[in-house]
Amino acid sequence: SSQLSSLPLQILFYVNGIYYIFYFLVTLAMIVYKSQVFSYPDDFLAPDLAVLFLMAILEVPRLYLGCKGNLTEEEAPLGLSLGVTVGSVVLCVYLLAWQTYVLWADVVLNAVLLCAYGLESGLKVMAIAAFVS
Amino acid sequence: PADTRGAAQKRACSAPAAVTDVARLCVCDLLVAQCDANCCCDPDCSPEEFSLFTTCSVPVVVGDSHLCRQKAAVYSLDVEANPPERIFQLIDQVSPSIFCIHATNYKQALYLRCPEMPTPENFDRLLNEFGSAAFSAEPEGWNVDTEAPNPPDANETHSYQYGAPVQTEDAFLRLPSPVVSSWCSDANPAGFLVNQATKCIRSVSVERCESIQGLSMLFYINSSILAVPKSSQMVNVTVQSIVVQSLDGRRTLLEGGDVLKLPLALGELCLNIVLGVSYHITYTDTGAIVEAAAAFVLGAITKEALSVQQSFQISFTQVNTKPVPLSGNPGYVVGLPVRAGFRPQGYPFLAEFLTNKHSQLTILQSTPSQDCLAAQGARAPVLFGYNMISGCKLRITAAMKCQPLAQTLLDVLKGQSFPEYVASFGNSQAQDVLDWVPITHLHSSEQRLPNPSQSSCQVPVSLGIEVKWTKYGSLVNPQARIVNVTATLSTTTLKQLPSGRERIIPVTSSVVFTDISSPAEPGYKAWPTINIKLPFDFFYPFV
Questions:
Q1: Which residues are in the Tectonic-1-3 N-terminal domain (chain B) (predicted)?
Q2: Which chain A residues are Cβ-neighbours of B98 within 8 angstroms?
């Protein structure tokens, strides 16, 4: 077939978008909960919040570039999206392991997000390979 | 696991290291080197002692329950075995909550941290950070504001509030009182409308008696009192009276006592030392002070005296009123005198009672000599709630006539003005007739001889006043209210004595307070009822 765009990748982008909104709200709420229940001084709270908001800011161009690249079958935006994904993965690992308080729910949410990123990255590489050749 | 990560972090902590191993923690181990009863985690207990326990007071020792996985030490008693033995298990407790802490990168999250020890270098910083009004170097509010930041309120009439310090020209009206120890502190301000009486000790010496400020009259009257706070209207403190106390304690009122007498050192004595000051402040109902007077007690000290006790008192009276001391508000307070009064004769419709400051119910006061005739006039006030009994002995000779003797005894028992009415509440006003309880008089006579034809001499020998009171008002704050006062006079027959013989009869008077309050029932407000009624013509077209 002449369609090179990857359907699974597109589905994954869509699901990722919805999941990320849910993930962002839940993680923010849990940070608020932690600051009330546990001792959470300001100089530990600020980095955690900064990482979360930075990840949210990065997610928008990442998903947009990925969708655009996949649908127009161009490898440049897709490659750029892959690069931003690396940054998002680093931030996700921070929230998984290096946060001030890592709750069990944090572990679950971040693990799911990491799996999604990993799968996306694999599909992006395959799509780029398909477009280039 | 989070607990091992934070275990070793006591670097420069001067507090003892925290025990975090649950196997070694025991909350009920209070006695050192002895076995605590029913404490299964006590290491000092031997298996024989464990077999005597009935339960384990501390069944589980666990760390922070927020952690997802943590070790728990479980102690239990196996009562089936013979003898009963203690079972100790170290288990891994898993928290089921999804918000349990899986890991933490903040070392001080799970353990109390060592507080910073104050040193001379960091003391100021710590004081600024943690010191508050209670622990600051400069007490706020002691500086009198001389900037006058509110010019538009210049004509606003301030007034003293209850408890506000009475201001004088320089600072506050001082009422020296003992602060921490019994030594006088001159920095205690007198509060407006706060009647106070204090006693404190001041150190003196004859050499310096003229220079010690607190011993001179001038110290107490030289600064004038401000009529209202922050105003320029001054009220001078006048000297009302001076009582001079001699070295043996005798007091005499000084004639022309409004002259200032300063301490005078005369050889081995120092005269005109202030031993007591009594301030009387008159105020208006708008909270302004109009008059201030001070009554002094001056004394003398000898060379050996190292300290002298001074007593100070302040009382406030409203202008144009005559204060009547209340015995409670509204219920009687135990220990305060029972108020009583008379109804003016011939004016049954006049609803005023004559009560003056001395209108109290009084009882005969026992004297050391115990002689009724010598003790005439000595009476003690009846204090609410205090049962009293007193008496004296009367020596009767043959020459005494019956009728004057009976009258004398009646005077001794009842006093000069035995009141007719007693106040039902501690604050009953003279105008409220219904708040006053009449005193019922009962007469009981002891008939020795069955035939009354013989000229019998009945003399009163005992007066018993029974005051019945009840608790009145709410369940949580009951007020004492006098309901009934009965004065029972008992008389006895005196036989005519043969001449030359004497007889001594005891005369007693007593006051008894009986509580006749009925048991209280708590009452609850009725549920409000919903009262819905449709208007008369609600179903107009159909009805």
A1: 12-122
A2: 103-105, 108
Q: What is the pTM of this model?
A: 0.44
Among all chains, which residue has been given the structure tokens 């170290």? B90
- Residue of A113, A7, A99, A11 whose CA lies nearest to A56: A113
- In this structure, are residues B271 and B279 in contact, taking their beta carbons and an 8 Å threshold? no
Between A25-29, B75-79, B105-109, B374-378, the lowest mean confidence (pLDDT) is in B374-378
pLDDT of residue B454: 52
Using the beta-carbon criterion (under 8 Å), do B98 and A99 form an inter-chain contact? Answer: no
Instruction: Report how far residue B364's alpha carbon sits from residue B357's, in angstroms, rounded to the nearest whole number.
Output: 19
The closest alpha carbon to B31, from B21, B19, B39, B20, belongs to B39
Asked whether the beta carbons of B480 and B327 are under 8 A apart, the reply is: no
Cβ contact B480:B328 at 8 Å = yes
Find the distance separating the first CA and the last CA of chain B, reported in whole Å: 81
What burial letters (b/e) apply to B155-177, b meaning 16+ CB within 10 Å? Answer: eeeebbeeebbbbbeeebbbbbb
Count chain A–chain B contacts defined by CB atoms under 8 A.
42
Sketch the domain layout of chain A as residue ranges. 5-130
**Sign, Cα dihedral of B354, B359, B361, B365:** negative
Name residue, tokens 């799911």.
A112
**Higher-pLDDT residue of B117, B131:** B117
Question: For residue B423, what are its two tokens?
Answer: 């106040």
Note the pLDDT of residue B400: 78
Q: Is B101 in the A-facing interface, judged by CB distances under 8 Å?
A: yes
